Amino acid sequence: MARKTREFSIFSLSFLDIMCCGFGAVLLIFLVMNHGFKDASTEATENLQSEVNLLEEDVSEGDEGLVRLRNTLAEVDQQLADAQGLATRITQDKDQYEAQIEDRKREGYTDNSAIEALKAELLALEAEVQELRQAATQDVGGGNARAFIGEGNRQYLTGLKLGGQNIAILLDTSASMLADKVVQIIRLRNMGETVQRRAEKWTRSLDTVDWLTAQLPLASKYQVITFNTQANVALAGTEGKWLEVANQAQLADMGNALRKLTPGGGTSLENAFLALRKLSPVPDNIFLITDGLPTQGTAPPRGNKVSGPERQKLYAQAVRQLPGRVPVNIILAPMEGDPMAAAEFWQLAMATRGSLLMPSRDWP
């Protein structure tokens, strides 16, 4: 009788042992990896919490420093106000003494001792003014005329170079300063002067002048020149003179005079730059507020229209009249129909180490 063949089964004891060992190994690996993840997650959480604590300490120290800075700024503002008032009074006294000396000379006054005494008092006043200027420069890094404070020699938000001893501001008062579009300009030109003075673009330009004069160092001098087809000083009677920033009353008079102007006429940038040469000494920093390339030179154009290339030629002719090695900072409010203005003024700013700013409608 033949032996019965043994049947093969896949679920034998040996196979089940192997499967159990495999599942056990997988479970062990999972437990080990899960424990490692928990440790790494806990460590990362602790590190983040430490960083949060450090940041909270920095914020607390920053708040304390901000309070100290505000208190210091309030004290500096009070000192500047006192210095400005004293400088204005001294300037007035100085003018009175000079007038008295001239009057006595014209009258043939023979008492030289009295004249010498007046001269001595005049010299003392000039020395006192100089000390005030130096003190203002040392206290606030140049002593801005108002409360806008930048960093270094440039305003860190705009890049404008705000320093200098003799600062010239050129304001375009041509008809194009009424609006950004030709249609709007034509419409406003047919309205009354009161409406034109309230035009948004023109008002924004005047606010820009106010912002710039607020940045002027107390120890510096300034002059504001307006230009369309001709160039004139903003404050009548100050032709060829530099004005004292410390004289806040005169600065306010200049601002009031600008707000009485009505934009009109063409644009002669050449006449504006020629006006700078009448100042002695020449400016060491120039701000130009305009909206495009010039439409004429020193004389009116022959025709009624000026093409783009012709405007570029007029601009190049005007740039040749600029004083040498003086930074030119351009604040441009571009209008339609003048696409080359931004490129030309940018090249001028780079060549003179100035800057070009094309601000938004709500600046400054």
Provide a quick synopsis of the model.
This protein has 364 residues and is α/β, with parallel strands linked by helices.
Structure description:
With 364 residues, the protein is an alpha/beta fold. The protein is built from nine helices and seven strands; from the N terminus they run ααβαααβββααβαβαβ. The chain has helices spanning 13-106, 112-140, 182-189, 193-197, 200-215, 248-258, 269-276, 308-319, 341-352, and strands at 166-172, 221-227, 231-233, 243-244, 285-290, 328-332, 355-357. Strands 1, 2, 3, 4, 5, 6 and 7 form a seven-stranded mixed beta sheet that branches. The protein starts with 12 loop residues before the first helix and ends in a 7-residue tail after the last strand.
Task: Record the SSE blueprint.
Blueprint: H1 13-106, H2 112-140, E1 166-172, H3 182-189, H4 193-197, H5 200-215, E2 221-227, E3 231-233, E4 243-244, H6 248-258, H7 269-276, E5 285-290, H8 308-319, E6 328-332, H9 341-352, E7 355-357
Parallel strand pairs: 1-2, 1-5, 5-6, 6-7
Antiparallel strand pairs: 2-3, 2-4
Helix pairs in contact: 1-2, 7-8
